[in-house]
Amino acid sequence: MLAAAAPASNVHAIGVGHKLVDAAPTGDMAVRFYVSRKMPKSMLGDVSMLPATIAGLPVDVIQTQPAALAATPPYQSRVRPVQGGTSDAHFSVTAGTIACICRSTDPGDSPNALLVLSNNHVLGPADW
């Protein structure tokens, strides 16, 4: 568990994925922290230091700029191709937003199948 004083000012996203070494995936799963600016450990205090592992997974710190979602104009205009920030929802739900488009790595899916990432309460009926 991360302390409340974690380096939130520099961390803009957290995920799980393959650990990267020199921008190449190692095949080992890791908790990935995306930061605006990666700094040497010698410049970080105890409060700003991320843990080396979380739940037995190594922590990987990746420097990248925050993603900017391109929200669609009002009145739910049609956007093709679909992109993150687009308004979408199951017909029984008032409104929701697509977070992003993901590429599947599941061997059961078509190679490089594209998927929409959102929340269950957005893409499914409200009573699911």
Q: Which tags fit this structure?
A:
2 domains; mainly beta; two-stranded antiparallel sheet; 128 residues; 6 strands
Structure, explained:
The chain folds into two domains: 53 residues, no CATH class; 62 residues, no CATH class. It is 3% helix and 31% strand. It contains one helix and six strands. The radius of gyration is 18 Å and the shape is globular. The two termini are 29 Å apart.
Secondary structure elements and pairings:
Blueprint: E1 11-21, E2 24-35, E3 53-54, E4 57-63, E5 100-103, E6 114-117, H1 120-123
> What is the terminal-to-terminal distance?
29 Å
Order of helices and strands: EEEEEEH
Question: Counting H and I runs of at least 4 residues, what is the number of helices?
Answer: 1
Q: Report the principal-axis shape.
A: globular
What's the number of structural domains? 2
Summarize model confidence as the mean pLDDT: 76
- The helical percent reads under 10%
Structural class: mainly beta
**Share of β-strand residues:** 25-35%
Q: What is the subunit organization of this protein?
A: single chain
Output the radius of gyration: 18 Å
Order of strands across the main sheet: 1-2-4-3
- Pick out the low-confidence regions: 1-6
DSSP strand tally: 6
| Main sheet record | 4 strands, mixed
Quick structural overview:
About 5% of the residues lie in helices and about 30% in strands. With about 130 residues, it is mainly beta.
